[in-house]
Amino acid sequence: DFQKLEVWLGPDTSDLRMRFAINTGPVTAGVLRGDKARFQLFGNTMDICFRLEGCGETDEIHVAETTANLIKAAGLESWLTPRK
Which of 7, 28, 49, 74 is most buried when burial is the number of CB atoms within 10 A of its CB? Predict the structure, then answer.
């Protein structure tokens, strides 16, 4: 519920939008240390995913071609919608 989320996040957050990207492929994982240690993934697979997310439409899930091909191979092509 967006109203509860706005109360929790603070004022002027009701217009919060999200963009998602999914890619498939090899990655390198590591823990970055600093003020807060965090787990992060690196590599070309992640670079493509970040580019997809960065130029994607809000409130949509963007899927890389490699992932789309796996979805099609699994017989789930109906899950995919061509880009606008």
Answer: 49
Q: Which residues contact 5 (CB under 8 A, 6 or more apart)?
A: 13, 16
- φ/ψ of 51, rounded to 5, equals -65, -40
Return the number of other C-beta atoms located less than 10 Å from residue 17's C-beta.
8
Output the tens digit of pLDDT for each of the chain's 84 residues. Answer: 667 777 888 777 777 778 889 999 999 999 988 888 889 899 999 999 888 888 888 888 899 999 999 999 999 999 999 877
Task: Report the SS3 class of residue 16.
Answer: coil
Pseudo-torsion of CA 67, 68, 74, 79, nearest 10°?
Answer: 120
Going by DSSP bridges, is the β-strand pair 38-42/28-32 parallel, antiparallel, or unpaired? Answer: antiparallel
Helix (H) or strand (E) holding 41: strand 38-42
